[in-house]
Each structure stands twice: as C-alpha cells, then as structure tokens.
Task: inverse folding
C-alpha cells in the first residue's frame, strides 16, 4: 500500500500540485492547514483524482494545540507515514522593518511550527521504520539578503533542522528531502517586481516526487538554482554586503 | 489581492491587450475581488480573438480555481470549478468510465470558457452543445452568489453569454458513460467536395469530422479525410508525447508552397481504402494539444480562424467559400468541415443545424479582406460566425446573425448594469449597446 502523506500548508499552489500528483497514484492524503473550506474542496478534488483517502485537517503553525490530533489521525493509518511541509509566510521586509514584532510570526510559520510538528512525528517514522519528510525551504535561506533576510533566516534555520532530522531518521529507515525552490508561480509571487525564471508549481511538484524516489538529500528546483546560489554564496562578504540583489 | 500588469492575447495573437490581472487561488479571494473590483473573468484564453481580453482594464484569471469538488456516480453529475481544464477532467475520469459529453478541439479550454462560448465538439450532431449538459451553475454578480438553473432567462443568457452575466464560479455537468479511455477511429479519403459532403451525411458514427485540404482546386476542390470515431474499451494506445513550439516561427513556415506540400502528404498518408486505428482519448479529441504553443507557428503577427455555420440547404455557399479560399493561396493546413445538429443552449450560442466550416489564416491585410468576404457570404446564406474565433467582424454583421442579441443584452444589463464585465470583443461588436 502507498504511503499516507500529511501535507502541511496544503492550500498553497505548490502543495496542491504535489497532492494531486500523489492522488493520481492512489496515495492517502491528510490535507492540513487553516482554511477548512478550501481544504475540503481540495480533498474532494484529490479523491476524484484517485486518492484512496483525502481528508481536510486543521493545522496552524502558530497553534501547537492543533498538532497532536493530526499526528494521531495519521498514525491510525497502516503503512508508512510521510509528511511534506509547504507551510510558510513571507511578509515584505519593509513591513517587518516597520513592525519588528512580525519576526515572531515569520519564525513560527517557516521554522518553529513545522519543526515542532516534525519533532512530534519523528517517533512514528522511527517506529514504523519507513517514511519520508519533505521540507520546503527556500533559496532565500542560503544567504541573508537585504530584500528578505528575516524570511531567509527562518528558512536557514529550517534547513539546519532538516539536516539534523535527516541524520536522525536515516538511522531508522526514514528519509528527509530538503527542497529549495527558486521563484515559483504562486499567489505569493504573483505581481511581485523582480521575478524571473519563474517555475510552474507542477514542475516543482514533479521535481520533488523524483527527489523522493531517488532519495535525494537536498534539491534545488528548478535545478539551475543550485548554480545561481553557488555563485551567490561564493561572493566574498566585503563585496556581498554592498550588493542589492 | 495583488494585480499583475501583463500584455496578453487570445489564442490567435493578432489582437493584444495590456492590463492588470488578478489570479485568485481561493474562493474567498475571488468573492472579494468580485465585490470590490468587479472585472471580467478569463481562463486559458483559447478563444482566438478578443473574447478573453480587456485592454487597459482589469481581468480575473480563473485558472487557479480548478478543482473537481464533487461527483455523484448515480446521476453522473460532476461539480467543478470554472477554471478547470476539460482535458484534466477527461484524464481523471475517463479511466473510470466517465467523460464530459461534449469536448472541444482543445483540452486546455476551461469549464468557464466552455460555458461562456457554449462550445461544441465532433459529436455535435448527436450530443448537442456543451451547455446542454450543464445541470446548473453558480455565478458571482458583484458580491452576490447566484445559483442558475436551466430554463431561466439568466441561464439562457449565460450559456454562450461571453461571461457578461456574472463571473462563472462553478458548474454541475452531466457526464456520459464511456467504456474506457480509448477511441476507435476510422479515417477515409474524400476525393472532392460532393464526395466529402456525402460521406459526412452518410456517417452514423457518434463522432464525425472532415479535414479539408483547402489548397486543392478544380476537380479535387474540397478533398480531404473523413474521420469517424466511437468509444472503445481499449486496449488504450500509448499517448503521443507533447512537444513545444519554443519560438515565433518565421513567415516562411506556413507559406503557400509549404502548406500545399504538407496537405498533400497529410492526405496521402491515409491509404485509398481507409484505415481504422485505436487511439488514446486525448490524441483523438485534442490532436493539437500535443504541440504546446502551436499558435507560435504563425509568427509574431498571429493568425485568424474563420468559422461559420450555414443551414443544411446552403452547403453550396461553403463550396463557394472554399473556392475563394483556394484561389487566395492564403489557407493553412487547418481546415475543418462538419455537420451540425440543432443543439444549442443559449441566446448567443453559435451552433445551428447545418454545415460548419473552420479555416485558419496567417494574419495580414489580404487574409482580413478575405475573411470579410467570407463573413458576407455566410450572412447571405443565413448563417453565422463563431464569436469564439472572431477578432474582425463589424457590429452590424453580428446583429444580423444573432436574432436574440437584443434579449441577451437586456439580461446582461440586468446582471451587470455598470458594464464592469465588458471585454474587448463586447465593446468592438457593441453587443451590450441597447438595440
């Protein structure tokens, strides 16, 4: 039997594309997020596309009280339990500059909430000796930049967490894939200035699926972002600190 | 909601628009836009001309509201969001024995677009138009959600209504039972016009369409290939891989000698005795979808499609059109002849009983002149042209071809009194101007 997947932040365009590709193969899906009405529509859609199970579940990165019920529901399914984290938020840096209190929410959505949830899920994966965690980070987490360094910092924290979790779960038969997307054509980027080489969510989902099958550790999607980020990471700090990229 | 300023166009790329687009991914976002900044809704922009553009204005891109939200297998009723592509529905449900009862020539068309143009398919003479299989639909009129049932004036104005009666949010479609995702396709040659017409008339297949070599003249005028098909349980033939046209092609690509050579080869690939093949469902319904962005083959200037329908007794008018086209040397490989039944769902629906002819032309002054002549011939034959394809017609022509236009404009004015939903096509043809 195919895995049961917990999808956090399931209403995002990337998550929708990922869930649909799993549904077409008959996977079980627990679609988790805050917007119950939207999740219910997506669950129906996934069932019609072939998911053996598709349920809308409440999940809020900023409300840990929602975590346990979701994990219990997943654990009630037989076979491997997997999770994909698409949850996150990216307020404009200028808004954070005006109101530094927003940092707490950014860290909760992109790092602390998902990490705490995965920490609770890890024992289930270890106990079953199988299961995959997909953590969607960002190229923004590779180096802090003027334009969105708070978001980048939260994603960088999440990357480090995923690396450690991979180290842990790998010993028990599980696996963790860190996904670093570049610009993806979603509601988050629609109409933002400065977007280029924007990828379709379906293409990103296909990259993630292939990374899962090949048990890749860290992927950039689309692939060329690996080289773009290599260049950006290599720029010496005395020069980098003067750049506006 | 963030708005994105874009230059965009219909499928024919001859008319371009620049404006702000919103692309909601959630129902609540769509409702907010409709209440606060109402604008026409657009889908995949597979209409050829200016039906899906709003130059210097706003539009709502519906393609992310694309979920199938319910299915009742006892009644065969599918509830689906307007941005859903018909090809996606077919891919998901055909293996389980269900299919939309009417599918147009591209699977990229959305449910909302299929309703707004009341599209037809290769089975129109049996199944009627898309809108005849709509059980009900939901509109947003400003901030108000309106359920629309068949038989009401609002329904008649919405089917084929060019999106002018409200933003189509979702619809319930009556699907049909199919034995599987395969098609048994019979192809035979038609030597000339009367042979072609007779073969289409004789056919009892549920799906039937004729491809015409629009470059043939004299004794072979109207020659082509008659394609008849029925559903089959399979085994499903492997689907052809999709390719993409990455660049605008140079003008030479579809010049007259190239088209003549291509058409001759296309005709001759069918053996004189005909052939029968089992084909994958999308390969039959959506043959051109395999070549993504094929509209770029016509280069930067884009292209036009002329499509008209004339009454059953007026086939002679089509023959005269074909003569004019063949003599012009402007035709492209895409030319289609079909028998149409009477089925239509709305006041501005294109279909009527008779014969329909569709031909593509590279955009240019000579092609536009030729299309104007063809329009006049269609009007003289008491036929009409298809608004989903049109980018060129004049208001008076359309007024003469669509007798229910006045009643439709009345309903559209009731639904959208401020005219927020008007598109470039609606303004060009003055469709909503009081008669």
Result:
């Amino acid at each position: 039997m195919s895995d049961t997947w917990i999808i956090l932040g399931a209403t995002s365009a990337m998550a929708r594309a990922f869930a649909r590709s799993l549904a077409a193969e008959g996977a079980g899906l627990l679609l988790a997020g805050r917007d119950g009405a939207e999740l219910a529509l997506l669950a129906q859609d996934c069932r019609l596309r072939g998911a053996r199970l598709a349920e809308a579940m409440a999940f809020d990165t900023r409300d840990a009280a929602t975590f346990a019920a979701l994990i219990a529901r997943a654990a009630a399914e037989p076979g491997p339990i997997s999770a994909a984290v698409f949850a996150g938020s990216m307020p404009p840096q200028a808004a954070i500059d005006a109101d530094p209190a927003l940092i707490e929410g950014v860290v909760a959505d992109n790092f602390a909430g998902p990490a705490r949830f995965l920490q609770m899920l890890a024992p289930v994966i270890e106990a079953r000796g199988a299961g995959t965690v997909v953590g969607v980070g960002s190229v923004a987490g590779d180096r802090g930049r003027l334009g969105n360094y708070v978001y980048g910092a939260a994603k960088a924290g999440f990357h480090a967490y995923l690396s450690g979790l991979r180290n842990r779960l790998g010993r028990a038969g599980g696996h963790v894939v860190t996904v670093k997307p570049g610009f993806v054509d979603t509601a988050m980027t629609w109409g933002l200035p400065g977007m280029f080489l924007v990828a379709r969510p379906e293409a990103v989902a296909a990259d993630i699926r292939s990374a899962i099958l090949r048990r890749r550790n860290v992927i950039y999607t689309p692939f060329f972002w690996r080289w773009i980020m290599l260049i950006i990471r290599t720029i010496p700090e005395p020069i980098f600190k003067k750049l506006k990229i | 909601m963030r708005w994105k300023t874009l230059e965009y166009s219909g499928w024919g790329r001859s008319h371009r628009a620049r404006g702000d687009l919103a692309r909601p991914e959630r129902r609540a976002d769509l409702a907010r836009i409709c209440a606060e900044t109402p604008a026409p809704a657009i889908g995949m922009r597979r209409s050829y001309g200016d039906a899906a553009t709003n130059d210097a204005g706003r539009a709502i891109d519906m393609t992310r509201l694309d979920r199938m939200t319910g299915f009742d297998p006892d009644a065969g009723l599918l509830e689906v969001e307007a941005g859903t592509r018909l090809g996606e529905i077919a891919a998901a449900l055909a293996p389980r024995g269900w299919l939309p009862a009417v599918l147009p020539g591209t699977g990229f068309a959305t449910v909302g677009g299929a309703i707004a143009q009341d599209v037809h398919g290769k089975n129109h003479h049996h199944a009627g138009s898309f809108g005849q299989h709509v059980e009900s639909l939901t509109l947003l009129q400003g901030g108000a959600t309106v359920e629309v049932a068949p038989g009401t004036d609002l329904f008649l104005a919405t089917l084929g209504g060019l999106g002018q009666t409200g933003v189509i949010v979702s619809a319930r479609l009556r699907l049909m039972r199919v034995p599987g995702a395969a098609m048994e396709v019979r192809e035979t040659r038609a030597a000339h016009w009367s042979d072609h017409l007779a073969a289409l008339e004789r056919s009892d297949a549920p799906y039937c369409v004729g491809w015409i070599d629009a470059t043939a003249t004299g004794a072979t005028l109207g020659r082509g290939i008659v394609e008849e098909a029925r559903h089959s349980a399979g085994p499903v033939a492997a689907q052809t891989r999709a390719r993409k046209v990455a660049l605008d092609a140079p003008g030479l690509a579809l010049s007259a000698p190239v088209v003549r050579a291509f058409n001759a080869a296309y005709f001759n690939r069918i053996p004189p005795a005909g052939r029968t093949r089992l084909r994958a469902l999308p390969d039959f319904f959506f043959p051109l979808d395999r070549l993504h962005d094929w509209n770029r083959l016509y280069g930067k200037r884009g292209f036009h499609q002329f499509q008209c329908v004339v009454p059953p007794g007026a086939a002679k008018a089509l023959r005269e059109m074909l003569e004019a086209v063949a003599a012009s040397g402007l035709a492209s490989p895409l030319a289609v002849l079909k028998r149409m039944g009477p089925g239509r769902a709305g006041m501005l629906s294109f279909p009527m009983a008779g014969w329909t002819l569709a031909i593509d032309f590279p955009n240019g002054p000579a092609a536009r002149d030729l299309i104007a002549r063809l329009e006049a011939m269609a009007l003289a034959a008491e036929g009409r042209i298809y608004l989903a394809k049109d980018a060129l017609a004049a208001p008076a022509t359309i007024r003469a071809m669509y007798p229910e236009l006045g009643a439709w404009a009345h309903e559209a004015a009731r639904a959208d009194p401020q005219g927020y939903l008007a598109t470039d096509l609606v303004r060009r043809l003055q469709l909503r101007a009081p008669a």
Notes: Strands of chain A lie at 4-8, 28-33, 53-58, 81-85, 132-136, 175-181, 218-221. Residues 49 and 208 of chain A are 19 Å apart (CA to CA). Chain A touches chain B through 18 residues (CB under 8 Å). The two ends of chain A are 46 Å apart (CA to CA).
